[in-house]
């Protein structure tokens, strides 16, 4: 139990504040460890799929083959989005922020769901399956309509990752491309009590509906301090231009104490284990596709940063390499944050459902620093 005594010290950004228990994700930032259900993220990335990890987090255990097959079938059955929502996406203004579009689409999806106001465990699980399935369809539809292209209907013979790439580009991806994107999704499914997950839980604690929780989470993820770092990394790479300029570019930024995008993490004081996985795949893709320029720049930046700041616990995070992987898969950088949401929807829903089992309304306190003996001055007497 947390003490009910008024705290006199402020925990900036709620750092170190523990408000609940969870069996889903464990992070040891000092040692660079990330576990889901006790299993290292590296093992999930190597052996599992987005579908399996999503189900495992929802159920709190590794699924059997039959359980996973049934879950996968339910996802596929729910990939199509309602015609009314398709029209809403089609009518959205061109040039808008994709996260605004996603937030609006998910909120509208709730209006069309007759079960949306039901917050029983059974309803939440059913809604979760629909949202996991339809997030990919919504995001692909937003991307295509914003480019003036027709939406591509989902296919039932492709994996979750492969189907998204197909709906996004209109071309069936290779098995290798599907697997690479699947791994990227696995790495982003859940990450403890980050800002968007906490926001979803805070909304849920009021006994609001699941669509409201996820819409809240999308709003939190939209912020550049949370979901937009991988896009900023790509902007930085374009600014650097060529590998031979990278060391001087970063050195100057470090000398001026400027932030290096994709470097450092609120939790990790060691290498982000997700970045180690993505670095290997980014190198593989770069070498195979002949797109080594971005990777070479990142490699130089990483070495420069680690040499200068490694002893202070500042290392590349998952955003550092994810952008290059997405770029090589043909995903536009303004859609990197929606891709984050595409993966994190499973973690958001699993966390909300877990917290709902022993719900408590979140109501933190603040330290009042204003006056206590002020007098009310009538409007006509104020200067």
Automatic annotation (TrEMBL):
Highest taxon above the source species = Bacteria
Q: Which Gene3D superfamilies does this one have?
A: Citrate Synthase, domain 1 (1.10.580.10), Cytochrome P450-Terp, domain 2 (1.10.230.10)
**Coiled-coil zones:** none
Which InterPro entries does the UniProt entry name for this protein? 2-MeCitrate/Citrate_synth_II, Citrate_synth-like_lrg_a-sub, Citrate_synth-like_sm_a-sub, Citrate_synthase, Citrate_synthase_AS, Citrate_synthase_bac-typ, Citrate_synthase_sf
UniProt keywords (A-Z) are: Transferase, Tricarboxylic acid cycle
Reactions this protein catalyses: oxaloacetate + acetyl-CoA + H2O = citrate + CoA + H(+)
Q: Which Pfam families does the record associate with it? A: Citrate_synt
| Functional pathway | Carbohydrate metabolism; tricarboxylic acid cycle
Q: Which family does it belong to?
A: Belongs to the citrate synthase family.
Q: Note the PANTHER family from the entry.
A: CITRATE SYNTHASE, CITRATE SYNTHASE, PEROXISOMAL
Protein name per UniProt: Citrate synthase
Which organism is this entry from? Deinococcus aerolatus
């Amino acid at each position: 139990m947390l003490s009910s005594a008024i705290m006199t010290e402020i925990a900036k950004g709620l750092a170190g504040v523990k408000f609940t228990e969870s069996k889903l994700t464990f992070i040891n930032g000092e040692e660079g460890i990330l576990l889901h259900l006790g299993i290292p993220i590296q093992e999930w990335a190597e052996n599992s799929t987005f579908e399996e990890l999503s189900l495992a987090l929802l159920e709190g255990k590794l699924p059997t083959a039959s359980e996973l097959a049934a879950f996968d079938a339910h996802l596929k059955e729910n990939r199509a989005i309602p015609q009314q929502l398709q029209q809403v996406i089609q009518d959205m203004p061109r040039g808008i922020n994709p996260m605004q579009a996603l937030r609006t689409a998910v909120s509208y999806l709730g209006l069309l769901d007759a079960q949306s106001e039901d917050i029983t465990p059974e309803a939440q699980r059913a809604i979760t399956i629909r949202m996991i399935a339809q997030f990919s369809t919504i995001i692909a539809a937003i991307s295509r309509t914003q480019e003036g292209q027709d939406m591509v209907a989902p296919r039932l013979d492709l994996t979750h990752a492969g189907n998204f790439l197909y709906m996004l580009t209109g071309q069936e991806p290779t098995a290798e491309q599907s697997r690479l994107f699947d791994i990227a999704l696995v790495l982003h499914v859940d990450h403890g009590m980050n800002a968007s997950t906490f926001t979803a839980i805070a909304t849920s604690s009021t006994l609001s509906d699941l669509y409201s929780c996820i819409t809240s989470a999308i709003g939190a993820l939209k912020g550049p301090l949370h979901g937009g770092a991988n896009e900023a990394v790509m902007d930085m790479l374009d600014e650097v231009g060529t590998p031979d300029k990278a060391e001087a570019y970063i050195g100057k930024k470090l000398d001026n104490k400027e932030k290096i995008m994709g470097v450092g993490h609120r939790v990790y004081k060691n290498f982000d284990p997700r970045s180690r996985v993505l670095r290997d795949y980014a190198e593989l893709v770069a070498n195979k596709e002949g797109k080594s320029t971005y990777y070479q720049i990142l490699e130089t930046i990483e070495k420069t940063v680690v040499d200068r700041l490694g002893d202070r616990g500042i290392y590349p995070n998952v955003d550092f390499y994810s952008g290059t992987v997405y770029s090589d898969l043909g995903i536009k950088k303004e859609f990197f944050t929606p891709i984050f949401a595409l993966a994190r929807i499973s973690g958001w829903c699993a966390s909300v459902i877990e917290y709902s089992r022993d719900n408590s309304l979140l109501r933190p306190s603040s330290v009042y620093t204003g006056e206590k003996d002020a007098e009310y001055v009538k409007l006509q007497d104020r200067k």
